[in-house]
From TrEMBL:
Lineage: Bacteria, Pseudomonadati, Pseudomonadota, Alphaproteobacteria, Rhodobacterales
Span of domain DUF427: 15-105
Protein name: DUF427 domain-containing protein
InterPro entries named in the record: DUF427, DUF427_sf
Annotated organism of origin: Sulfitobacter albidus
Pfam families linked: NTP_transf_9
Length: 114
């Protein structure tokens, strides 16, 4: 796999919270490890409350994964701009993450094993 990327099934049950609300829970999450970066948990789109997410025009390019599309998380009190990303058409070596969402952890967004 390119650039020391490994993708495995994330062991156990995972949740993502934003603004205190649970917006996703999954026992089918994937863990992507890339080089020396911390592992990233990717949630299946079907396990995330998409009503909280608004697509944005923001994109980034990764030479190993492809073009990432972004979503903002809309909570009762705030909008967290570009806090979620997804590879809609990932490169072949990382095709397993297609249809999955990753969240940027912050003071208001947490990704936890439960």
């Amino acid at each position: 796999m390119a650039a020391n990327i490994t993708i495995t099934k994330a062991a156990g049950q995972w949740s993502v919270r934003a603004g205190g609300a649970v917006i996703g829970e999954s026992s089918d999450a994937l863990e992507l490890t890339e080089g020396d970066y911390p592992p990233v948990i990717y949630f299946p789109r079907g396990d995330v409350a998409m009503a909280f997410l608004d697509p944005t025009d923001h994109t980034t390019e990764c030479p190993h994964k492809g073009t990432a599309s972004y979503f903002s998380i809309v909570t009762k009190s705030t909008t967290l701009q570009n806090a979620v990303w997804s590879y809609e058409d990932p490169k072949q070596d990382v095709a397993r993450i297609k249809g999955y969402l990753a969240f940027t952890p912050s003071d208001t967004v947490s990704v936890e094993k439960i």
